[in-house]
Structure formats: C-alpha cells, structure tokens
Amino acid sequence: MTKRKLDGIVAKGLWLYVLAMGIFHLYTAVFGAFEAYLQRAIHLTWVLPMVFVVYPMFENKKSAQSQTAVPWYDWCFAVVSAVPGIYIMLNYNMIVERMIGVDEITAIQLILGTIVVLALIEATRRAVGLPIILVSLAFMGYCMYYMMTDIATQSGTLGNFSLANFCDWFSGAFKLLIEEMYLTDEGIYSSSLGVSATLVMIFLIFGGFLENSGVGEYFMEFAQAFTGTQAGGPAKIAVVSSCLFGSISGSAVANVYGTGTFTIPLMKRIGYKPYFSGAVEAVASSGGQIMPPVMGAGAFVMASFLNVPFSRIVVAAILPALLYYAAVLVMVHLTAKRDGLRGLPPEELPEKKSVLKRAYMMSPIILLVYLLLDGYTPMYAAIAGIVLAWGVSLPNPKRRMGPKGILRAIHDGAKGIPVVCTACASAGFVLGAVALSGIGPKIVSAVLSVSHGIPVLTLLLIAVVCLILGMGLPTTSAYILAASLSVPALGQLHFNSIAAHMFVFYYAIISNITPPVALAAYAAASIAEDSPNKTGWAACRLGFLAFVIPFAFCYDGGLLLQLDWTHNVISIVSGVALVFGIGFSFTGYCGGRIPMWSRVLFAAFGLASMWKSSLVSLGGTAAIFVLYIFCQKVFADKKASSAI
C-alpha cells in the first residue's frame, strides 16, 4: 500500500516515535515482556496511531499533498485509536480480574471496544488491503447471527420477530462480541498478535541490524561471487541471495523489490526472457519464507500453535526448503544450458577470495541457528544475533555502527511492523468469532463431507482454500486464518500435526506466485516490464515443487525428518530424485533437448519417487537415474557421430 512521503517536523517526530517503539520492544525482549494481554495491548496501541499517520485513507496519485501531509481527520483517528489501549493499561488489574461472560460489560468498555474494532478494521484496510477485512467481517457477521439466534432461542422469542426483539437480540450479541474481541485474549489480543508483539518485532530489528551492518549486502556479494560466472549466473544470484535474505523478511513482495531491482535486469541482460526473469525472482523471494531459521515469522506462530519447541519447526522445515531451492536452481541452470545463456564476466563480480575473507559476516545467522537448535528461546537467539551483527560491522569503517548507526538499525527494523501487526490483530477477529460461534467444527464437518473423508481429496480442498485465503494477504496472517480453519480437518484424518501445519503454511506462501492474485509475481513483473499473468504462470512452473512437496510430507514424515535415520535418508534421496526429475521434465533438457515421451517419464518417475511406499519411492528414484544415463548416452553418441 502507498505510504505518505512525510517531511519536516512530522517526519522527524515519526522517526523518534518508531525508534521509541523499537527500544521498548528491545527492552522487554532483554528484561522480560509484560503479561501477554498487556504486552499485546501496548504493542497494538503503539502501532495503530502510526498507521493512520503513515498510510493515507485513499491512494490519490493525482494529489501529491495527500501523500506528504497528514490531514486533520487522520490525526484524530491516530489519537482516538490509542485511547482503548491506554484504558487497558490504566485498568489492567480490573480487566483481568473480571469474569468473562458473567460480569456485565460497562458502557465505557463497550464504546472503547467498538472504537478499537473499527480503528483496527480501517488501519488494516490501509496497511494490508481489503481481502483480510472481508474475511474478518464475514466471520464476525456469522458470529453475530449465531449469537442472536442463540439469545432468541434462550429467551423464547425466536418465533416472535419484532423490532424490539430484534434490538434486544442485536444488543446482547454485540456486547458479547465486543467483550470477546476487546476484553479477552481470544480476540484482537490473541496469540497471533502476541507473536507480532514479541518475536516478529525483535526479528525485524535483527533484520535492521543485518542491513545496517552490511550483512545483507554481503549475502548479495556471496551469491554473486559463487554463482555469477556459471551458466545463467544472474538467475542463480537471485535464487541464492533471496534464499539468504528472504528468511529474515516476512514479505515476499518486499524481497522482490529488495533483490529483484538488481537481479532481474542482470537476467534480462544475459538473455533470459523478461517474464522468466521476473518469475525466477518471484519464486526465489517467496521461498525465503519457508527457509529456516526465521521463515518470515511463520515458524514462531507455528511453534506457538503447536506448543512445541521452536527447534522442532526448524528441523521439520529444512529439507523441504532445501529441495524447493534446489529445484529452482536446477531449472534455471537447465534453462540456461538449453538456451545457451552464459554467466557474467568475472571482472564484474566480487572476487571469491575477498568474499571468503569476510565470511565472518555470516556469523550472526550461524549463531542464531546454533542457539535455536541448542534449545535457547528465539528471543535470546535474536538478541545474541543483534549484538553479533553490531560486532561484525566494526572492522568495516563504512559500515561501523556507532550510536547513530545502532539507533538507525532499531528504527529501520521497527518501521516494518505495521503490516504484520495489523494483519495479526485482524486475524484475531476470525479466531474470536470461531471461539464464540463454534463454527470451527462445522467447517471441519463440511470439508470432510465434501471430500467424503478421502485424505487426498481433503488435502486438495484445503490447498484450494489456503490459496484463496492467501490472495492479497501477508504470509503470517494467511497462515493463521488457514490454520485455524483447516488444520482441525487434517487432524480428524490423523495426519501428523506438524505436517498439517506445514501443509497449510506452504500453500499460504505459494499463493504469492499463483494467479489470478500473485502479488510477488506481479511485483517482479513490474520490474521486468512484462505481463503479470505471464510472469505468474512461469513462476508456478518454476515453483511446481512447492505444490507437490506438501502432499508428500503429509504421507512421508521422513521429508520433515520426523522418522528414523533409515527412512529420513530414503526421503532425502527420493527428494533429490524428484528435483531432477521435475527439472528435466519442465525444461525439456538433459544434456540436450529431449523428446516429449522422455519429459513425461521424468515427471512420472519423479512423482513416483515421492510415493509413501519406500519400494515405489526407490524404484522411481532408480528409474530417473537410468533414464538420465540413457539420455546422456544418446546425446554423447550424437556428438560422436556428428564429429565423424
């Protein structure tokens, strides 16, 4: 969404406001957060006024004034939106001691609860977009209908409709809804907002330190030095750099603009078609959110939902993420070999020796991963990573972070919170409505009824639901919505809980590259200057593995490294076979251009390698290897005969 280009005293004041917010969250990360409901209320109270100042009510491209000045009504919105949170801070003990559903909600609480609901809806519309608001309103509307019907039934007035009775039904239901959304930790201030108020905020600040210390720039140089001269080098630079950078960022679109402005022109320069160049960047940037350790904040939410150690999510996510990126690298490599696309000249790229001498720049990420896997909390690991990111900046005079640099890093990280915060808070509308109305079991029953309880059909149906929910939503909020509605259905079919959540998470992510609403692909298309739909469909082909792997790990726990070593190794080998099988099939190249029957066989054997039966899986893997040897021999014989 468009942001105002503020200047003067307003810009300076906002800079200090965001800095203070970042410092507060750093303080609570180091010395301990407040009780959950209070911490979340403070977090949202800090963010809402910022949204009304930064994001205009309407995008008016004709009027520069609407983008640079804050109108009086937005100042009013900013002030009013903070009042409900301030009330919670001042009356926290009274609120937590009241009995939900027993103590009557007061008039002031009803008014303030209504204000925060309306303010959050408008703030989310501005910062995130309309889709999540429509979903939230639909669930709250159903919740109101359900509670009005329940009130009418209990009072014995259900069959006696009148305006007075309707007002009584509506009033009673509305009070219950506002109480759930405002005065409990199951609505707006639910666990989804808690993730934003603690983990996401700290990791955004960690990202700010990575950028300001030069670690982010080093990621790009590392990718350039080790992949730039190879066939299709710029495309591989895009894949590797987006993989490294994307895990920290929570937005696929932000990843595209962060790395794509450099990589897409390079890909076009060596001969990749514009739409393919955009597709490579879109797929690579979207995949960053499935790459541990951070996974764009999704891993934190998942660990919270599953109530498992964060390290379990990291371990489960690593193999599918590596296979995803391996598939993209294989396809861009084979496309480059097929079309005769070379890499960049060595003189245009950083020297490998120079890059390796600064390998210590990777240490903040390495430390983060080590601490997470060693059982330390994500907050502790992030703080340690921040300190080390500051430390690695010291040897470089251009990047050395003094007091000003540290404050700038805190600000640069904290300023990215509005989108995540408002999306997570709005997801609380759905969670609260589900809790109040009991619609969750009904959705589970509907899914199982339509699919007749057939596991594969259930997975297909949930995949479609996740893709639809993910259209236009940030990954984290799309995952929260999809998980709350879909995962219980998979649980009924006895799928592993981590696999079920990972399935939903994957499809929430790949909605970014799936037309008709593929935000990452559209962002890349704008840089590549080609058709958004063409770019989107090309991205779907490149990211095909992301559509297949979730089905596979629902049946094969080895892909999530959840089984014994023997089965895990078989899953790794078959996963690698799938990568090459799909790569050869989709590009039509295996040492040379292969006929259609070979492409069909490569695809079929690749899918067979992911079968839940180890025997079939190993058979498919062996068949891919044999077919590969056959193709290599055919083209070697052709070259020998042409030489004669």
Please summarize what this structure is:
Residues 115-553 form the TRAP C4-dicarboxylate transport system permease DctM subunit domain. The chain is an all-alpha fold and 644 residues long. The protein has helices at 8-31, 36-54, 65-68, 72-90, 92-97, 107-127, 130-155, 163-182, 191-213, 215-227, 233-246, 252-270, 274-287, 298-306, 310-339, 352-357, 363-373, 378-393, 403-414, 417-437, 439-450, 455-469, 475-492, 497-510, 519-528, 532-542, 544-555, 565-587, 596-608, 614-643.
Architecture overview:
- By secondary structure, the chain is an all-alpha fold.
- It has helices spanning 8-31, 36-54, 65-68, 72-90, 92-97, 107-127, 130-155, 163-182, 191-213, 215-227, 233-246, 252-270, 274-287, 298-306, 310-339, 352-357, 363-373, 378-393, 403-414, 417-437, 439-450, 455-469, 475-492, 497-510, 519-528, 532-542, 544-555, 565-587, 596-608, 614-643.
